[in-house]
Design goal:
The chain has six helices and nine strands, in the order H-H-E-H-E-H-E-E-H-E-E-E-H-E-E. The chain is α/β, with parallel strands linked by helices. It has one domain: Rossmann fold, CATH 3.40.50.150. One of its GO terms (biological process) is methylation. It holds the Pfam family Methyltransf_25. It comes from Rubellimicrobium rubrum.
């Protein structure tokens, strides 16, 4: 199992998994914090949801909060689901690693998606984050709690995960113009997720 297998795995297993995805929105406190801090120069916050999956519950919630959401996913079946579930959003079939939208966003999400990238791809993603971040934009992402690789499950298939050391993430934030706003390792109130929140420096 390698990071290169993730997209094909979601193509096969993602639609079935999406039907069983926990919709209780345990993520809500962190989403609400990020929305509260994110700038809104156009009156509505522009959200870039990287690895958006089927759009439920996160994109739906953000749309209901009045955000303008652009969802990006490399799995065609998942982005097609997203387009049906969140028709008010923009749905883009694209790989986050090579994204070049020539647009800026006030909030960038890489929630339950970023950790499917290889360590080197994660390092390279910080330039992508910075290229799409407006002044003062918030980045909200989940990782593993420490450096290493792990194999999880989705449906009937293995699924690759990886993480860098927390200090390396901090160095990458610094190198790409972000300041750390919060770090919640293995947060029990959010299903054990390790959560980062950062903001671009004005």
């Amino acid at each position: 199992m390698k990071s290169d297998d993730v997209i094909a795995t979601y193509d096969r297993e993602g639609p079935g998994w999406a039907k069983t995805r926990d919709r209780r929105l345990t993520e809500r406190p962190w989403i609400d914090r990020a929305v509260a801090v994110a700038p809104h120069p156009l009156g509505r916050r522009r959200v870039l949801d990287l690895g958006c999956g089927a759009g439920r519950p996160l994109a739906e919630y953000l749309l209901d909060r009045g955000c303008m959401v652009t969802g990006v996913d490399a799995s065609r079946p998942m982005i097609e689901l997203f387009a049906r579930i969140a028709p008010r959003a923009v749905a883009l079939h694209a790989d986050m690693r090579t994204l070049r939208l020539s647009q800026e966003f006030d909030l960038i999400l890489a929630w339950d998606s970023f950790f499917h990238l290889s360590p080197d791809d994660q390092r390279a993603m910080f330039a992508v984050f910075a290229a799409h971040a407006a002044s003062g934009a918030v980045l909200l992402m989940t990782t593993g709690p420490q450096a290493g690789e792990a194999i999880g499950r989705i449906g009937e298939a293995d699924l690759y995960h990886a993480s860098l050391d927390p200090q390396e993430y901090r160095s990458l934030f610094e190198a790409h113009g972000f300041e750390e706003l919060g770090f919640w390792p293995e947060e029990p109130a959010c299903g054990g997720r390790t959560i980062w929140m950062a903001r671009t420096r004005p």
